[in-house]
Specification:
By secondary structure, this protein is α+β, with helices and mostly antiparallel strands. The protein is built from seven helices and 14 strands.
Length: 283
């Protein structure tokens, strides 16, 4: 599958601002299943960017705008090719995989994705309630799939109820929110259960006559580490494995590590308008 993604962030300020410093994480990743064919970022006002990779391997572009301005537009255009085959349902959790999962070396290697963060932390009773309802299991693959299905059925997709600062222990009280909330809660439960899990941001191609949710802006889902297999993407918002419709951009412990645009400026209040378009170019 080949896609063209256009992502536009437009900031408007109540007064003219200056000394705007920003970082963007909007460049799709390239790996064994996803290939970035083209990418460019257009900034208005124009600015030079400095590029680097952060600790999680995300591509970061930083820029500084010294001139006075009343708005800031960050537009990125990407072309990505994806080839993924579904396989998580076919995984046979072998004794060898179980041995790796319970080893001290495995735990230490993925410690960053086992420790809770402010976004993913859940109270012990919140975790226990979910585990009791879905059923405990020593098979992390089955547990991850059961948890994804449970959250998909339990959550109500409700834009505007939460915001980018909402934490898992808050959204779990109402089970209302958006993809970010689904992902943080799922990660919190998985980590509490000893399953390494990381937060993924990117884009979702919905197409026509699809039941998938999450194409209005950036999308979020979860990747779990399966011993002997690697990272496997699961989308609790849609109760599906993250395959050729999911375009990966950012990887981290939670939303704070992959925020598409971060910055500071001197001036008045701001408003943000986000537009995302994912176009299928070739199957």
């Amino acid at each position: 599958m080949k896609y063209e993604i256009t992502h536009t962030n437009t900031f408007k300020y109540s007064t003219r601002v200056d000394q705007s410093m920003n970082e963007i994480r909007l460049k799709p990743r390239s790996d064994e299943c996803q290939r970035l064919l083209h990418y460019r970022a257009e900034l208005t006002p124009a600015s030079l960017t400095k590029e680097y990779s952060d600790i999680w391997g995300n591509h970061v572009e930083s820029f500084f705008i010294a001139e006075m301005h009343e708005s800031l537009e960050v537009k990125t255009i990407s072309t990505v090719s994806i080839q993924r085959s579904p396989f998580i349902e076919r995984i046979d959790y072998s004794p060898e995989m179980r041995s790796i999962f319970h080893s001290e070396l495995f735990r230490k290697h993925y410690l960053a994705f086992l420790n809770q963060t402010a976004y993913t932390y859940l109270e012990a009773d919140q975790v226990a309630k979910i585990v009791n309802e879905i059923g405990d299991t020593e098979n992390p693959v089955k547990f991850s799939l059961d948890l994804m299905k449970y959250l998909h059925g339990k959550f109500e997709y409700s834009p505007g109820v939460t915001n980018v600062n909402t934490q898992a222990r808050e959204s779990i009280e109402t089970f209302k929110g958006v993809c970010q909330d689904y992902a943080h809660v799922m990660i919190g439960v998985l980590r509490a259960h000893g399953v390494p899990a990381r937060y993924i941001s990117g884009y979702l191609y919905v197409g026509e006559n699809s039941a998938l949710i999450g194409d209005a802006a950036t999308h979020a889902w979860v990747e779990v580490m399966v011993p002997g297999i690697g990272w496997v993407g699961l989308d609790p918002t849609n109760n599906v494995e993250a395959l050729e419709n999911h375009i990966r951009v950012g990887v981290g412990r939670d939303y704070a590590d992959v925020s598409p645009l971060q910055g500071v400026y001197r001036g008045g209040e701001q408003s943000l308008d986000v537009k995302v378009s994912v176009k299928l170019l070739d199957q």
